[in-house]
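Q: Give me the 3D complex with S-adenosylmethionine.
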Amino acid sequence: MLGRPPTVRAARAARAARAASVEPAPKTARSKSGLRLEWPGRTWEPHRESAASIDGALPTLDVDEIVGSGEGGRLVLGDALGVTNALLAEGLAGKVNAVYVDPPFASKTSYAYEARLDGPADGRVLRTHAYDDRWLGDGVGTYLDMLAPRLEALTRLLAPGATIWVHVDYRASYLVRLVLDEVFGRDAFVNEIVWRRAPNLGRQAASFQFGRTLDTIVVYGQGRPAIVPPTRLEPIDPGSVRWDDAGRAFIASPRGDYTDESIERLDREGRVHRTASGKVYIKYFLVAGPDGAWCRERRIDTLWTDVKPLRHASPGERTGFPTQKPLSLLERIIACASPPGGLVVDLFGGSGTTGEAAHALGRRFIVGDGSPLALAASRARLLRAGIEPTVATCRPVDGPPGPSPEVVVGEDADGLRVELVAPREPLAWAIDVAHVAGGPFRTAWHSERMPGTRAVAAERVARLPAGPGPIAVRVWSDDGGVSTLVPGRL
Ligand SMILES: C[S@@+](CC[C@H](N)C(=O)[O-])C[C@H]1O[C@@H](n2cnc3c(N)ncnc32)[C@H](O)[C@@H]1O
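A: Here is the predicted complex, encoded as structure tokens.
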């Protein structure tokens, strides 16, 4: 559990913390914006050399598992601050092309993961506590104590021209902007993107206020960030399509506030249309859409209503992890925030959406989370997508006890036959055929439950070539518990 649950003692803190306030920065402060967000008990100071780790020891990332080649990206279990400091200690300062984080939003909610064992239609659901977004008192102070140092540490990873994308909602977006103003200065603000994450229906629509159906993604940049927004096709009324002498389809729009010089330039480019009376219009050339209809190509602005909510994604994409974001959202962000082959980091990674999207777009990734459940869910998801990550832990981490696996191992001329007798419905299991005690688990064979309209259970029997050493079997439960067994061979 990462968010501290409310306590009685919290009431006093809550009264004090009732509102964070913004004040001019005192002379000693290092705020780059000249403003300082005050909250009771604030200890965070931007631009102070941060302690090496949260518990005083130098943080390291201990490799626990190498899946196949291990070259499909890095998955890390650990608090975002410790993991960031470990990455900085590895020499990644200034090397990351984009940081995306979707941290808790101070939503006062405890979130449950729902593993639908037979698919959404058929009923059996395993519910497990995933993570807590409840904070002491009314929460703003303890929430900021958690978030501010982690955001600042993450910004140290950014390469020149790189951006950090912080996904929150109305509860935290204004706080995140003030924190990032202190870290970077107001000039480093790039965008505040508004994504419609849900339709305005039901309780939201009938709540005597405008429906709270939007998330906010705050973007700040290091140096001179260059984001190239994608375009979308906007269908054009066939009656307004015209053709120029070269046979190109266009629509004509009034010149608006184009200066005479701009009109001269556009004229040279063949983009000015003059009516019989000499009135000037600007030509916008059209492209044929997928159904052959003429469309105008428009660059996407900061209002994203065309990225569908997760509920519209295929059942196979929906992992059951609460607050999971759609792959299409992360693909849009990663495509315009990082170059092919670039490095993308998300240390509040949840179900691993960022890792899957980054891999699909040919980017490298480091995805982490402080919750063993999230790590197990994202590991299973990446492996289902054919991605072979290296999995590491940044200690200390408390996890639930693992399952008690039972296996039957046999060997014949065709190789090994390993049957998982218990647990009967694991989230995932894997086999190492050359196990080295104390070393990382080298996954040679693996199977995971597949979510979908009809979920498919993990396979129960593995057939694989025998390896040079003893075998080991590792099993993951839906609550994030992990156990490793080194069985004897029959
Ligand atoms: C909103 S969810 C992320 C969802 C994710 N974007 C997805 O698509 O699945 C927030 C995640 O932050 C993690 N988290 C909260 N506090 C953390 C911390 N201090 N360090 C690392 N992870 C943390 C939670 O465990 C949770 O998985």
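A quick observation: The CA atoms of residues 102 and 144 lie 15 Å apart.
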